[in-house]
Each structure stands twice: as C-alpha cells, then as structure tokens.
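Conserved oligomeric Golgi complex subunit 8: structure tokens wanted.
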Amino acid sequence: MYFGLSFSRVGADFRGQLAPMFQRSAAETLRGAVSEALERFQEDMNVYTLISMPSVLGGSIPPQQGPQPGTLQPPLSLLDFTPLACFLNNILSAFNDLRLCCPVGLAEEVSVCLQDAMADVTRQVLLFHRAEESAFSAREKDLFLSFCCSYAEDLLPFINRCLQILFPPNQIALILGVPVSQLHRFGSLGNIDIAAILTPLSFLLPQIEIAPEEIQLPEISSDIDFSPELSGLTLETQRQEVEIKQQEVETKQQEVETHQQQEETKQQEVETHQQEVETKQQEVETKQQEVELSEETGKSHSEDQDEDFSLE
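Answer:
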C-alpha cells in the first residue's frame, strides 16, 4: 500500500487493484475453514450418542453477569452438546482469522457461505434424527429436543451477533445510502436467515415464532470502535477457565487436607509427649520405690547388727 502511495505521485496509484486480491484471499480462507468445520461436525455427529451427563461446564454453572461492552460471551449451554460446541469453536476461529482482513465488501459472500453451512448443519441433525429415532428412549428424546433448542436459540443467534460485529449494519447502510431498518431489502448482508435454516426442523422444535432480530445501533461516529476484539471467544477458552477453577478448588481441598494432617500430626506429637512424661513419672516412682526399699533394707541390717552386739 505504501508502494502504491509512492507511485501516486507520478499518476500510477495501483492500490485500488489490490483490494480485490485481499478480498478473494480472505473469502477463500473463510470458505476453507467453514468447510473443515462442517466436516468435523459431520464426524462428531456420526459418533455422537445422547447421554445424560452431569454437565459441570454448561448446565450447572450459575448465570454470569452480562458481557461487558465490546465483548461477546459464547453460550455456555452449548458445552452440554459436544458437536455444537466444537462446531462453534471452529467457526469462531474462522471469524478471528477473518477479522484480521475483513473488507466490508465480503458481507454478502460471508453471509451466504454461513447460510449454506448452517443449512448443512441442519441436514446433519435431521440425518441423525432419522437414523436414531427408532431407538430413542424417552430420556433421549428429551435430550435431542434440548439439542435442537440449543442449536436454534443459542448457536444461530450468536453467529448473527458475531456477523454484526464483523460487518456493522450501520457501516453497510452508510455505504448503500439507506437507513439501517431497510437493509433487509438487500438480502443477506451481515446476517443469516435463522427462520429459513430452521424450517426443516420445525416439526421437532417447540411452536415458537422466530422473529428477526431488531437492529438498534447508534448513529455512526468516528469515535465508535466497530471492530471489538473477537479473540479468545472460543468455547475451548471457557473449558480451560472452568478447568482452572476446578483445579483451584482441588488445590484448596488439598491444602485443607494437608492442614488437617498437620493438626493430626501435632496431636500425635502431644500424645507422644504426654506418654513420655508419664513414662518418666513411672520411672521416678519406680526409683522412689527402689530408694524406699533400699532404706528399709538398710534399717533391717542395722537392727540385726545391734541384736548381734547385744547377744555378745
């Protein structure tokens, strides 16, 4: 870019020709990452079994406070369903790579790519249901319903929020010269159509109306940061944080046990000391008895000698 700026002095500014190259490269990288995420999701679904497990990572964690401005909090409930958690983790990795070079012109292409990817995810979920439905127990049916609800209510809306950070609607509206509320007329620009994605799963999901998310953003200003940090938002990070907390709890438990052992050791030392004192007391008493016996023996000897002298 600096090279092109230098050539602009002689009327040969070629910087405008470089943007499509970066745009194509970023799009190809994203498509490759999304394709790999889909392959891994398919592999995970092929070996996935609905097992009711006490989830330490997702279900039992108390709700945290709302995310701070400029950050996104991945839904922890997805940790209860490994295929969804791993898929979102891979998509977030692709987003983190994309935001390093994310032209606004990619908004439609990225949205279409993710729309197709989520449609493939829906098809994989349906294939899993058709293959396993006949063997479902009552508990497994409930778990599969929870799986679908988590996919519909947590994963898809979160991906839309990520897209709105990568491609802010107010920036797109400013470029197109239309209000933000009119962006839906231009198709998929920085969002995915959740209702269309979930249509094949409508017979499995509870009868709820899926309304498009209302976009309420402030007026565009030079003071607003439109590229919040997306790094570190993977579910793997959440797992690591929970594991660290578990390790801290285990460490504290070990410290308590060590303290208890030290107290027991001190008590044993006190008891041993008391036993030594008692032993010494017994030795003293024994010596006193020996002294008394020796004194009595000495007196008896002296009396015998006195009697002997008197007889003579």
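Residues 54-69, 210-233 have pLDDT under 50 and may be disordered. Residues 50 and 140 are 6 Å apart (CA to CA).

Cheers.
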